[in-house]
Structures
1.
Amino acid sequence: MDGDPMPPSCVIYAYCLMPNHVHLLIQEKDEYVSDVIKSIGTSYAQYYNLKYGHSGHLFQGRFRSEPVDDWDYFLILLRYIHQNPVAGGLVWKVGDYEWSSWREFDNPTVCPMPLCSVQSVLSRISLDALTELVNEPLSRKKSILDYNNETSIRLNDEMIRAFISDDCGVRNPKDIQSYTKTERKAILKKIREFGGSIRQISRITGISENIVRKA
């Protein structure tokens, strides 16, 4: 109806603005993620260019994303996003970083413009438990998106297939589907530790992302 406010195009659960990139944990609503990111990027570029007299493109490359299928992985991403400034050597503690959403959770009174759906998260986990998780460093073997966080090198599918063949002794990655649960879990774990992402492993083996993540 005329005069009604437009519904938000997404729900934001966490964000972190780093010097050369930004992380977002969001849920689609009325628009696809790609459209949401395009809208955010365009609006911010216009603001930045106007304020600093800049012209041309502000962001380089296409954004990367992956689906969040369960609560456990949601928490991993929430931790990863808020720990980025610590991992990048910008601050010593998660709570010391000014440009992330953690202050909305930990100290909302000092947050001038809250953006995140904090209560929907805290309805499933207490603030004390979440704080403990966020301040506990993630293993460097955790792979977010298609990157190996230990080397910052993207492993392509051929590298993963070669590892499966040479180190796991499996000529056809699809054969892993027919292995026993114990055998399958051991192989999937080895591939993850090598640096394959959940998405890559699922794509190459034909095993669902949820099974790969649980392994």
2.
Amino acid sequence: MELKLPERINSILSRLEEGGFVAYAAGGAVRDMLMGREPHDYDIATSARPEDIKRIFKRTIDTGIAHGTVTVVENNIGYEVTTFRRDGEYFDGRHPSSVVFVDDIKEDCMRRDFTINAMMYSPKRGLVDFFGGRQDIEQGIIRCVGDGQKRFSEDALRMLRAVRFSATLNFEIEASTAAAIKKCSNLRRRISNERILSELNKLLISDNPDYIRKLHELGLLVHIIPKLDMCFGAEQRNKYHIYDVGEHIMHTLKNARPDLILRWAALLHDIGKPDTASVDSGGVIHFYGHHRVSRAIADDTLHKLRMDKESIRKILVLIENHDVRVDQAPPAVKRMMAKTGDELFSMLLELQLADNAAKNPEYFEDKKLRIEGVRRTFNEIVTSRQPYRISDLVVNGRDLIKLGYKQGRIISDILKALLNEVIIDPKLNTREYLLQRAKELRAYQKNGHF
């Protein structure tokens, strides 16, 4: 079999071969090439020792030299070149305590996580596939190399990687590998929250974000986001829903476009429902205040996962307002825009549409028409640059101070009052009108009427 490698990779392989060593493109790049996908990066495995690699190439960086990895820099681009090795014991659940450099390529392949990632290729020697990785690609299977429990005890993150590869490649997790994940699920405590967040992000941005469901089925989700795990099986016994809370969330995810902020909001928008469920005399289940509880749980969850503050802020705004029924009238749209801003308001409408599409289809068309009407109003406001924030007013606090207002809350209150008038009638946003109106409100204030 012949695979086409980039010239820069062929050059590195050739120079290693010319130095008397064997060298291969390894791992994910080989998998992607076999699948007809463009690899994101290329790792190289070789019989050359780190000191040999450093001697052969002019520019190198000791990125992981203790574990046999040297970064070769060619045309200001780095390529990881790693010596064939056998790993020692994994005491921290992530890194081997020691490595032994070997000449046997099969030993190097044996230490890798899944069969589809344990293949190597060189133009000189062709495809190396000891564990049936090519066949597993053809059958769409994620399978561990060797004993699954051993692979996961070495690095527990591999359990999440199995689900992530399943989502991104649209593959099934082979039965014994799935069973090993279930047995090892409590090893989640060995995984840093930052690494978990990275895997969840990749899963959520894939074409199958609802494969979060597999984390639940494999017993992983309860150790990662326990409140989300509780959503599966939580009934929604009312006319607007046809799924339990967990399945509703999965369908909302599928309906949302692949944007991380939007999909995180979709994932967590109803996470507070199990905690707010109440049953009325007719047996109907209600979730009063679930948006506030969902926001609080999401805030705690995302901080624990070490997500950046700005992303958390955006996600929480969407969750808090996902159930707000915005009227199509321009003043109502502007007031919500003032709470969210342009970008998040547009995303909020996307979330609401995805959310409603995951409910009872009997009611969807009316809700879709309303949301589309709000979208048209929003577009008109943005296109015509109508004011909706205090910063859009042509007057500011300094102007009010010149009129005799004292610094403090009263200035904020007056600006809000002026904004309310401008929101209703954008033509009032002139200095002449607003300064005159501020003078009138100043008089009311002196008489104790404001």
3.
Amino acid sequence: MKSFSFELIKQCKKTGARAGILHTPHGDIETPVFMPVGTNATVKSLTPYDLENIDAQIILSNTYHLYLRPGYKLVEEAGGLHKFMGWNRPILTDSGGFQVFSLASLRKINEEGVSFSSHIDGSKHIFTPENVMEIERGLGADIVMAFDHCVEYPAEYDDTKLSMERTLRWLKRCYDSRPTGNQMLFPIIQGGMFKDLRLQSLKESVKYAEAGIAIGGLSVGEPKEVMYDILDFMQPHLPDEMPRYLMGVGSPDCILEGVKRGIDMFDCVLPTRIARNGTALTSKGKITIRNAVYAKDFTPIDSDCDCYTCKNFTKAYLRHLINVNEITGGRLISFHNLYYLVHLAKNIRQAIIENRFTEFLEDCYKFNIVF
């Protein structure tokens, strides 16, 4: 526990937007922060050197995928994820709960855990709170997520209540089996789109939160207005003394709206996924570079961006790479998209510190940054 602490540096009086510092064994994380997703112990197409140049402070990896390949014991034998992938800054591992529950036709849930068939070869496996903690201990990430039960959207009240209560029972088991020392467990708040269930989950989960807490089960297909309404409801009840992590959310508008509602940490596969299809995030909104309109456009993706991609390459060149299926195209746009989101979070943080967050928010929306 001594290796982890959170400092609240500044808070916007109008909105509750926060700037802070999360101290971890592998370095400090300035919040708000966007965390690139490295599902298989790599952010697709990018190296740790690239991520350091982007100034990513923390990245994610996924317990489910790494359990199946190459196996957590191999990663543990290599010295943990940091040494295995050559990344010396903080790492967070998801519990794999969302991935397992997305395998609707391949899994069976009971109180003990989840039995599932591998999407790779059909082999049979089981995840329980206890063995998920054992897997995450072997992976060695700084922040480990509790094993939770997430329901799809829309879900009936009774089904959502059942999953929320099961998540709480599993959280107790995760806590009793949690890694200690240089690893810290984050509980996950569930409850779907039902405010009474969200509040119950929050109040019970906080008891097990020592260094941070997460909000799961949002951005699962519901309208953004519904997500924002749930966050508005939860904001006054969230703990002040630790970071709040909104799981799986990372479009520019959702980051802005999340920070506005007191969220500190974000992650999403969106920036690299859309990059591989030729879509870029910019300060003026998203653009689809593979479109013909950019065939003779010899300007950078974003004239306001000073990332490596924007300083050296044009939209015409990137369009060419994407349209001939050159991997470098997706790599260069991925670099830009991650740089954009990482630095959006940094700019939001600076605006909070300088008491101009609401003005910053208004300026962003003038340029139609909604994804």
